[in-house]
Specification:
Length: 229
């Protein structure tokens, strides 16, 4: 993706989020220079911040997702069972924009339709090896009520509705009818290691630097802040 397009998506996404009364934390608006100079471990090491991905496929409008990680605990705390064991994201799924089929090994998550169109999730249970079970019934809680779907069934969430996905449950999702504001509340989030995709695709975008970044993405931190190649 071109940096100019990333900057445009950030501006559009911020306006969309604000239209629902959700206000981003102050660090969301720090310049790259301020973030680099301040280098707060609670933001950089926890990988809080902007995350615009086309999954490395170069077709964001069809295959992509807007994310902002608001808070995130530590894997070490999760392992010992005490401390900050949770994470929160705000996301935007554009109308008919696919977030591809994937599962998590560790993370359990509530996916919440915060406003806009319907959020559609295609769901599969895992087989014994962790792959997609194309025959097993899908059983998931939706706001405390158990829902049962055939393998590959489509769960449609209206604004205000949510689904709880336990580790291993395969899911893809997109907006229907209109763009969707999505909330995610989960256990500690690790996007570097805890995303298993059904197809061989990447988690982050490759950025072509055609202009200066408006704000750094979490995938920029190693290069812009830590100086890694």
């Amino acid at each position: 993706m071109k940096r100019s397009r990333v900057n445009e998506i950030i501006r559009e996404g911020d306006a969309f989020i604000r239209s629902f009364g959700y206000v981003m934390p102050p660090f969301a608006y720090w310049s790259p220079e301020e973030l680099k100079n301040r280098r707060p471990a609670g933001i950089v090491d926890a990988r809080l911040g902007w995350d615009i991905t086309d999954y490395g496929q170069g077709k964001y409008d069809q295959l992509g997702l807007f994310l902002f990680t608001v808070r995130n605990g530590r894997a070490e705390d999760l392992s010992r069972g005490g401390g900050m064991l949770y994470a929160e994201k705000i996301m935007i799924s554009r109308k008919n924009q696919l977030s591809p089929m994937h599962r998590h090994v560790v993370k359990a998550e509530d996916i919440i339709n915060r406003g806009g169109g319907k959020l559609v999730l295609e769901l599969f249970m895992p087989d014994e090896e962790g792959g997609i079970d194309h025959h097993r019934e899908v059983v998931v809680p939706t706001d405390g009520v158990i829902r049962r779907l055939p393998a590959g069934g489509l769960l449609k969430l209206d604004p205000g509705e949510s689904v709880t996905l336990m580790p291993g449950v395969w899911h893809a999702f997109w907006g229907e009818g209109s763009d969707v504001l999505i909330g995610e509340v989960s256990t500690v989030n690790d996007d570097l290691t805890d995303n298993i995709f059904a197809e061989p695709i990447g988690r982050f975008s490759q950025i072509e630097e055609d202009e200066a970044p408006l704000h750094l993405l979490v995938s920029d931190y190693d290069r812009f802040i830590h100086g890694k190649a």
